[in-house]
Design brief:
This protein has 440 residues and is an alpha+beta fold. The chain has 16 helices and 14 strands. Helices cover 43% and strands 16% of the residues. A five-stranded mixed beta sheet has the order 9-12-11-14-13. It has a three-stranded mixed beta sheet with strand order 1-2-10, with no helix packed on it. A three-stranded antiparallel beta sheet has the order 4-3-8, with helices on one face. The two termini are 69 Å apart.
């Protein structure tokens, strides 16, 4: 059969090759004039009419408006230029539209009625007041200053750890203060240890630069005095421990331990817990600008990363390189909005830090359950299990928003049925269901 089809193809090709030529004919012999005239007659075509030319020009103009002419095959230079244009266009858009897994979200300005959450809010640990991001630092500072009247030692310690952002300088200053107090505690009879020269280089570079440090010395019993220098006509300023404080030298050791073990006072992130009725919009997120705002340093890093992206996209990358870049991309978010959909369709929503652990989400969900003793699982888009609760949200790709599905542990449910025990008819606590809302 194969040979049969080959013969048919050869015959068709031979017949379509045109008229033959004798071997005795010369190569330069011309075709008869009659045959030439017939060919010219066949090849001649009538030109298009004016109406056809106008219609073609209009169609060509419309085509060029819709789609610019391409320059032919795409090269690395054209890819690089195209990526650069796309990144520049993306940078000019104030509300970036991105996707995280199967969850689509958009960033909108505050004040929009369709936002999934109105913003990021915090709770003051002193007053319990709800604060915006731009209010928290000033409110905390005011609360600590007011606390100075009640407990000046505790307030000064909070100032040292809270008002000074450079943690390395704080640690160095605290360790230096601890040495001063250790010398007094170990050698209470030595007068030289009860005086601290304020113009001392170590004191100036490590302690005096810390906000709240001078208040701490004065609160624990040091008094500022100007003392003469022996055999000189000048004097210098000192912190001198008072006799009352020296009589209770054990308290200095307590103050030292408190200073070393204290942490900065921070406003607590308000979870803004909300419960929604079943809705097909559960996977859609409209986030405010608080979830995307970057500091000046972060903006510089972002700009450099975008410039580097032009070069990265034009070269081949390994899987490890791509995963590392994805992780770096996830770290730029500070907060994440998470939703959990339950078997009855209700949706639980809360705000979290992007670097918080999965265990905080499990605790957040467990606090909302009627049967809070039953084990459960939370499945993100794709249905894979989150096995390690010590992982952060940004390490799992759950930023800046995500929808997770709640499922009971099937093995435990079967044991409950086998034992004849009954599970609560509802999943969420009644007080939460009383606040249920419609998801806009």
């Amino acid at each position: 059969m194969k040979k049969f089809f080959q013969e048919i193809k050869a015959d068709i090709k031979f017949k379509s090759a045109g008229p033959g030529q004798k071997l005795t004919d010369t190569a330069g012999e011309k075709v008869p004039r009659e045959r030439q005239s017939q060919q010219v007659t066949k090849q001649s075509r009538q030109g298009p009419t004016n109406e056809a030319q106008m219609a073609a020009a209009a169609a060509l103009a419309r085509l060029e408006q819709k789609q610019p002419r391409s320059r032919g095959p795409t090269s690395q230079d054209s890819i690089r230029n195209q990526v650069k244009k796309e990144l520049q266009a993306e940078a000019t858009v104030s509300g970036n539209a991105e996707t995280s897994g199967a969850n689509a979200f958009t960033a909108k300005e505050e004040g929009s009625s369709n936002l999934s959450v109105s913003g990021v809010y915090f709770t003051c640990p002193f007053t319990g007041a709800t604060l915006r991001k731009d209010q928290r630092d000033a409110h905390i500072k005011e609360a600590i200053n007011k606390h100075s009247k009640k407990d000046p030692v505790a307030a000064s310690i909070m100032k040292i750890h809270t008002f000074n952002r450079d943690r390395e300088k704080v640690k160095l200053g605290v360790d230096t203060i601890a040495k001063y107090l250790d010398n007094i505690h170990l050698h209470p009879e030595e007068e030289k240890y009860r005086k601290i020269k304020l113009q001392n280089k170590v004191f100036q570079e490590r302690i005096n630069c810390l906000e709240g440090a001078n208040e701490f010395f004065e609160a624990i019993g040091f008094e500022k005095m100007t003392l003469p220098i022996p055999e000189q006509d000048t004097s210098e300023d000192y912190y001198v421990l008072s006799k009352e404080a020296l009589a209770e030298v054990e308290k200095l050791e307590q103050h030292k331990v408190t200073l070393q073990t204290s942490e900065p006072v921070r406003a607590q992130l308000n979870r803004q817990r909300r419960v929604f009725k079943p809705s097909p919009l559960a996977a859609q997120f409209d986030l405010p600008g608080d979830f995307f705002n970057l500091t000046a340093e972060e903006l510089k890093r972002e700009q450099k990363q975008r410039a580097d992206a032009v070069e990265r996209l034009s070269v081949l990358r390994t899987k490890a390189m791509r995963e590392k870049e994805e992780q770096r991309e996830m770290r730029k978010y500070t907060y994440t909005l998470l939703r959990v959909r339950f078997p009855d369709g209700h949706i639980l929503q809360g705000t979290f830090y992007a670097r918080e652990r999965l265990s905080t989400l499990y605790t957040f969900v467990r606090e909302a359950l009627q049967d809070d003793w039953l084990p459960f699982e939370l499945l993100p888009a794709g249905g894979h299990k989150l096995l390690d609760e010590n992982l952060a949200f940004n390490e799992c790709g759950l930023v800046p928003s995500a929808l997770l599905t709640f499922t009971w542990d099937t093995g435990v449910l079967e044991d409950i049925k086998a034992s004849g025990a009954k599970q609560s008819p509802g999943i969420l606590k009644p007080e939460l269901l009383a606040t249920v809302e419609n998801l806009a």
